Amino acid sequence: MKNILDRASAFDHVYDSVIITDVNGVITDWNKASEEIFGHSKSEAVGQLISLVHVPEDTEKVTLDVISSISKSGKWNGRVRSMHKDGTIGKVQSKCVAFYDEEDNLIGTVGINRKININPS
User: Fold this and answer.
1) Domain assignments of the chain as residue spans, ordered by start
2) 0.70 cut: is pTM over it?
3) Contact between 39 and 17 (Cβ < 8 Å)
4) pLDDT attached to residue 19
């Protein structure tokens, strides 16, 4: 069975942002919807900390909330403000799920983000 880090190309065909991070919060994979929602290309995002997509003043709280929930239940979800590459602030509904190695050690997370339209027309 392939490791989750060897993602299927199907990730690029979903409407939601799919971001995979390692245990240190470094982005290891990023799909096309992530590029559209956050403005960074895959090559710009991979290798950066997940805080790349957070509003700077929210980063510490979001990180602590996610880590706390992941350590208790293996998952987290909530609405957070997001930062686009061009500096605009948006909002996403986000869900993070932990994934583990064969010895049940946490090795990273899969984050799924859906843009929330904050200015409905």
Assistant:
1) 18-116
2) yes
3) no
4) 96
